[in-house]
Amino acid sequence: MASEVATLAGGCFWCTEAVFNDVIGVEKVESGYIGGSVPNPTYRQVCGGDTGHAEAIRVTFDTDQLSYGDLLDMFFATHDPTQLNRQGNDVGTQYRSAIFPHSPEQEIEARTAMARAATEVSGPIVTTIEPLTVWYPAEDYHQEYWQGEGQRNPYCQAVIPPKLKKLRKSFAARSKATEAA
Q1: From the candidates 12, 15, 47, 156, which is the catalytic residue?
Q2: pLDDT tens-digit profile of 32-67?
Q3: CB-CB contact of 124 with 114 (8 Å)
Q4: Active site residue 15
Q5: Which residues, in sequence order, are CB contacts of 79 under 8 Å at separation 6+?
Q6: Dihedral sign of CA atoms 152, 155, 156, 162 in order
């Protein structure tokens, strides 16, 4: 088994974490902050929008089951890469759509995946490819949020199920929920 890591920002990390936890081949998803200038930022600081960090996820996946390109296709399909510095009602640079490649190969694949996604969306893709900077894991209460507190959070109830439905419809063979059904 060969593991690889992907770092992606696609809006609220609770939402992107919930999506990728449902993907076959994903070993671990960690929510955190990346791309900013303040060391050891807190959730409150990042939500303030002035640290430069994005809410992001770090996905560890088994390359024998899931390619980086397939992971990126799911990323583009389960958020709106045409919204600049926002996802729905979440507005600010902390909610930007961004890919933080871990290698030159990942950067090439990110550009290729972006070109594929451009044929599937209406409007220009504003997703950025940014340098991999220091990763700061989010506070413990943000990890696995959808599996716990998120089930009682009205925001999560409104946003996450449609994302999971889209994943399970568009990538049925890749969904843990579809596999278990």
Answers
A1: 12
A2: 999 999 999 999 999 999 999 999 999 999 999 999
A3: no
A4: no
A5: 10, 11, 15, 16, 87, 97, 163
A6: positive
Is 59:38 a contact under the CB 8 Å cutoff? no
Cβ-based burial of 167 (10 A; exposed 0-12, middle 13-18, buried ≥19): buried
**pLDDT tens column, 135-165:** 999 999 999 999 988 999 999 999 999 999 9
Q: Please state whether the predicted TM-score (pTM) of the whole model is above 0.85.
A: yes
CB atoms within 10 A of CB 79: 24
Which residues, in sequence order, are bridge partners of residue 57? 8, 31
What's the rounded Cα separation, in Å, for the pair 45 and 53? Answer: 9
85: left (phi over 0), alpha (psi -120 to 50) or beta: left
Beta bridge partners of 29: 59
Sign of torsion, CA 22 27 30 33?
Answer: negative
pLDDT beyond 90 at 124:
yes
E-strand stretches of the chain: 3-10, 26-34, 54-62, 86-87, 90-91, 97-99, 128-129, 136-137
Angle at which helices 68-77 and 104-118 pack, to 10 degrees? Answer: 40
- Token readout for 177 is 């929920």
